[in-house]
Every structure is written in C-alpha cells, then in structure tokens.
Specification:
434 residues; mainly beta; five-stranded antiparallel beta sheet; 6% helix
Length: 434
C-alpha cells in the first residue's frame, strides 16, 4: 500500500511540475551536433503520450509522393519485422518479462510510465507470419509461426536455419521455404548462446543480424540501467554488440559503450555495419542525442563515462579506464527520440532522393518537452556517409496527448515497400510510392 501511495504522490508531482521548454526541433542533429550544458532536477521531466488506439479511418500522415495503407491489424504488441525469401513477413510480438527484482520507487514509477506508454502488458511471446496472398498490399494470412518464446525480438535466416533472439538466448529453428508454421516437435530448437537477462533486464530487446558470409551473428544488448546506477557489476556483457561464431558457438564483444543499440543493417555500398542507439536520459531536454553510427570491430562509444567522445557525464562516479578510447558517433538524431528501427533504402521502390539512405523509426520520448520522435524519418547518404538533416516521412502517430501508435521495426518488403511495426496501434503499416 505504501508503494501505491508513493506512486500516486509522485505521479501528481510529475503532472504538476513546471517543465522547461526545449528547442523544437532539437538542435542536437546531424554530423556535427551542438550540445548544450547538462541540467538535472530532483524530479525528471516526464511528458509521455498516453497509449490509445487508431480511430476507424485514421492513419499516420505520410510525406507527399508516398502513400500509406494498413498491411495487417489485430496484432498484439508487434515489435520487430523480418522478410523471408518468398516475401512472407515475420512479426515478433513481444514485451518485457515481469521484473524478477524491484529496484526501488524510481523503477516502480518507470513501470507506471511505460504502462501509460503502452508497454505494460504481458509479453505475447510469439512470432506471427503474414502473407499477402493476392498481391493487393494487404496481408490476408496471419498465422502463429512460433509460440512459447521468451520476449523474442531479432530474427534472421541463414539457409534453412532461422535464428531468433529471445531476451535471454539466441535460438536456432529449422525452416522450410513457404512454411506457415515451424514444427518444433519434428525439428527441436537449438540454443546457440545465452544472452544476459538477470533480475532487472532494463533494456530487454536483443536484435540480431547475420554476417554477409553467413558465418557469424551480431547481437545488440542494451545496458541494465540509465548510467550504471545499479553498479557496473550489473553491466557485464551489456551496452555492447556481441559477435557469435556459429561454427564454434563462441561469443565475444565486437563493440562496446553503446547504451541501448537496436536496429542493425549492412550498408550496401560499403558492407559496413550500422546501428541506431538510444542514449542516456535525465540530463535535460536536449541531452543526450540518440544516434546513428557505423560500427567497427573494437569501437567504444563512451557509455557510461562520456557521450559524443568529449563530454563527461557528471553523474558517473569513478574515472574511465585508460584502455578505453571513445569515438564519436557518426550522426546525431536528436535527444530522446528513441531510435529503434533501421533499414537502408537501396532495395526499395522509392525514387531519388529516397533511394540512397536510411529509414529510421523513432519510438518517441518520455523525458522531453516538447516531445520528440514518434515518427519515421529518412536520412540521405552520400559517399557512404549520412548527409543533411532528417526528413519526416511518416508522422502524426500522436494527436494532442494521445499516442494512436508508435513505430518500431522497419523492413523493405519483396516489392520494395516500407513496412512499419506499430506496437501501440497493434498493426503493421505499408508505405509505397504514389
């Protein structure tokens, strides 16, 4: 009862606080972001849109030259997407597992906020297969493909082996082209490696991508906290991208200091790995920018000690070890946008300037006023590097104070259209050219 009363009182404080205005749009964008001084308060800025549902006939807005339609509906918290060779689309319907350990009042408040944001329901723990059987841009088939998983997220296919990243392990399943369901009794799944979960498991999503030669997997693992406040002993093998050798089942840290990496993609023209990362909270409305970056073997991006290479986090106790040499990310996306999905546009049907660059889904802020994110943006690439400022492609997921939807996973389908997993709207959207 005391915890409930405390949550109620703090909720009132959050609702009544005077939140300082931020720059809108945020200044912390692009290849050379201008970062303000950090600021903090006893009560952090809390300004999250309440999760709702799409009213009948209402959709997100798209930029001119694009059109949008509902590809699949009546899903349950769809988070991530993967396109199979025959054009079938896999949807990981997933959420965080109930915490095994409560870390105090702040974490209870955080859970309350996430529930308001649409992330408080039980995890569906399954993957659904979608199929557009008559080629009309709408999936007629929606079938349970894999069930009884454990907060599944990333998926990738190598030959007949489908790899799924649960929050606690990478699992391999046998897949036959065109199958509507995987028969786990005939072909029992195989655990490849364990992944860190633990009692807190703050950033639970684990994404995967196969190496270009199919011999390795790369796995994103977010931190177990905002800035290591539970102790760095709780951050073992976290805030990293892990490389897994599929022949030996050995894993190693490929890159580190990434607070919460999510989307992964190989750049077609350079074969370089790119990711998007959610940076730390509670340093002010315009800090710290989430980012898009290339990733090389051995890179360290600063978390928790510094951000954008040269900026020390004043809240972190202790000095950064001398052997860690931080590098700056390639491109700032703006503070608190919560970048999740990432896909290069080169295989899309879209015409210039949208045929060479990346689409990024911004799930949306909770720690900023005015809100940031809640949209899908496009960033052009030239000479293998991001250029200019982000262009809004899909917007109006939030109307006034209600979030009808929030974009997460992105893929380019077999026809070259962009598909968007909407975990609050419980649907998948399809973006095509006019």
């Amino acid at each position: 009862m005391k915890k409930i009363i405390s949550i109620f009182l703090l909720s009132i404080l959050f609702a009544c606080q005077t939140i300082p205005s931020a720059n809108s749009p945020p200044l912390s964008l692009g290849k050379d972001p201008q970062l303000p001084e950090p600021s903090s308060s006893i009560i952090p800025t809390v300004n999250i849109a309440k999760a709702s549902q799409w009213p009948e006939g209402i959709t997100p807005k798209v930029k001119e030259s694009f059109r949008i339609n509902l590809y699949s509906k009546e899903l349950s918290h769809p988070r991530w997407l993967y396109v199979l060779p025959n054009g079938d689309v896999l949807v990981a319907q997933s959420n965080k597992q109930p915490p095994k350990k409560t870390q105090g009042l702040k974490d209870l408040i955080a859970r309350y906020i996430m529930k308001r944001a649409g992330a408080g329901n039980d995890s569906p723990d399954k993957i659904t297969i979608l199929r557009d059987e008559n080629d009309d841009g709408v999936a007629e088939l929606a079938n349970d493909f894999l069930t009884n998983l454990h907060s599944p997220f990333g998926m990738t296919l190598i030959g007949n082996d489908l790899y799924v990243a649960n929050t606690n392990a990478v699992i391999r399943f046998h897949y036959e082209l065109g199958a509507k369901k995987i028969d786990t009794k005939k072909h029992p799944p195989e655990k490849i490696v364990d992944l860190p979960e633990g009692e807190i498991n703050a950033h639970w999503t684990k994404n995967i991508i196969a190496s270009l030669d199919g011999t390795k997997l790369y796995v994103t693992v977010g931190s177990n906290s905002n800035i290591g406040e539970h102790g760095l002993d709780q951050e073992k093998d976290r805030a990293v991208i892990i490389e897994i050798d599929l022949k030996t089942k050995q894993k190693r840290i490929y890159a580190s200091g990434l607070r919460n990496p999510n989307g992964l993609a190989w750049q077609p023209s350079s074969d370089k790995l790119w990711t998007v990362v959610n940076e730390r909270d509670e340093l002010g409305n315009d800090l710290v920018p989430d980012y898009l970056t290339s990733v090389n073997d051995g890179d360290f991006f600063g978390w928790p000690y510094v951000y954008f290479k040269d900026y020390k986090d004043p809240r972190v106790k202790g000095s950064m070890p001398d052997n860690l040499k931080p590098r700056s990310p390639d491109y700032a996306l703006g503070a608190h946008v919560a970048a999740l999905g990432l896909v290069f546009s080169n295989t899309s049907q879209f015409k210039a300037p949208y045929d060479s660059g990346v689409f990024i889904s911004e799930h949306g802020s909770w720690n900023r006023k005015p809100r940031s994110g809640y949209k899908v943006v496009f960033i052009s690439f030239k000479n293998n590097e991001p250029q200019g400022l982000p262009v809004d492609i899909v917007t109006d997921f939030v109307v006034e104070d209600e979030a009808y939807g929030r974009p997460v996973g992105l893929v380019i389908d077999k026809k070259g259209n962009l598909l968007i997993a909407d975990d609050v709207g419980n649907c998948v959207w399809r973006i095509s050219s006019k």
